[in-house]
Amino acid sequence: MQRVFSGIQPSGVPTLGNYLGAIRNWVPMQDTHESIFCVVDQHAITVWQDPKELARQTRDMAAALIACGLDPDRCILFVQSHVHAHTRLAWIFNCVARIGWLNRMTQFKDKAGKDRENAGSGLYVYPNLMAADIHAYHATRVPVGEDQKQHLELANDIAEKFNHDYGVDFFPHIDPHIMGVAARVMSLRDGTKKMSKSDPSDQSRINLSDDADTIALKIRRAKTDPEPLPSEMQGLEGRPEARNLVGILAAITGTTPEDVLRQHGGQGFGTFKGVLAEALVAHLSPIASEAQRLLADPGAVDALLRRGADRARAIAEPIVAKAEELVGFLPPR
Ligand code: AQP
């Protein structure tokens, strides 16, 4: 059975973007793959996180993932910092990856902004830790949103260079699995910017914890243009906000943007936004309630995560110990 690895940062409340671009697609994989899912708190601190918030957000994220359908009995669900094999392998990868490769990473450029000299060095080597997350499990399938594709290509370059430098065939090739219709959900305030849990504007995103009224309000306020919806896809050209809302409705109702336009073409946004809000509320409300129910017993969520870490460690430890041996480290015992 192919092994899947994917992760999500506890850098806030998971958004509709995280859900449609990643989490939702992880759920069926539990039946078809050996599935490993990780709340990547070490990635999260590559930008400032309030220490008091981070632990809570990590637990909240785990509860949200379970509420979305990840079953800790059918997958391995754990917290990155609980399994030290990730950072041990990341150090080796820091030494394998070339600076020129990292310089090409667009996410670093986006997140570091103009003041690059002042960005944390962790943000710069983030892709090396991500490569380690995956290769520590010899995972070969990585379901992610379209924005992570470049990092996966880098993870393959790192594996190839490691194998070449040490004359082995140790780290396998990763098969990026870029997700469906709404592979990239955009901000509700700016259709050219991706929806992000750390966007300063809460109005820019739907959080999985939002209640029905909040969802309806955010959709009502979502930026659009004055034209009605077109009936065909080419009518969405140059209209990023309209395209985004159409993509979201298609993804949430399991149809295609073409079908959405066939059905709603000619409608003004007042009507269309009502339909979209209703579909979102129907889909997301049960998730929010289930996450709340789980968080009523935080100790139980923590216990599930500890068990997940034990299972993750059992896979990653021997792989990373072997990588260390290949590099020439003296065995610790
Ligand atoms: N807007 C999005 N559309 C589609 N997929 C998305 N993902 C994130 N945003 C969108 C996918 O969610 C998975 C987990 O993401 P992450 O938490 O590891 O990091 P991220 O991509 O940086 O997500 P955010 O929400 O934008 O977090 P912050 O604000 O902290 O940077 C990934 O598979 C990603 O593709």
UniProtKB/TrEMBL annotation:
It comes from the Bacteria. A motif ('KMSKS' region) lies at residues 194-198. It catalyses: tRNA(Trp) + L-tryptophan + ATP = L-tryptophyl-tRNA(Trp) + AMP + diphosphate + H(+). Signal peptide: none annotated. It is found in: Cytoplasm. The keyword ATP-binding applies. L-tryptophan binds at D133. It holds the Pfam family tRNA-synt_1b. Keywords: Aminoacyl-tRNA synthetase, ATP-binding, Cytoplasm, Ligase, Nucleotide-binding, Protein biosynthesis. One of its GO terms (molecular function) is tryptophan-tRNA ligase activity. Its main location: cytoplasm. Its EC number is 6.1.1.2. InterPro entries: aa-tRNA-synth_I_CS, aa-tRNA-synth_Ic, Rossmann-like_a/b/a_fold, Trp-tRNA-ligase, Trp-tRNA-ligase_bac-type, Trp-tRNA_synthetase. The keyword Membrane does not apply. CDD domains: TrpRS_core. ATP binds at Q9, P10, S11, G17, N18, G145, E146, D147, V185, K194, M195, S196, K197, S198. A motif ('HIGH' region) lies at residues 10-18. Catalyzes the attachment of tryptophan to tRNA(Trp). Homodimer. Belongs to the class-I aminoacyl-tRNA synthetase family. This is Tryptophan--tRNA ligase. It comes from Pararoseomonas baculiformis. The lineage of its organism: Bacteria, Pseudomonadati, Pseudomonadota, Alphaproteobacteria, Acetobacterales.
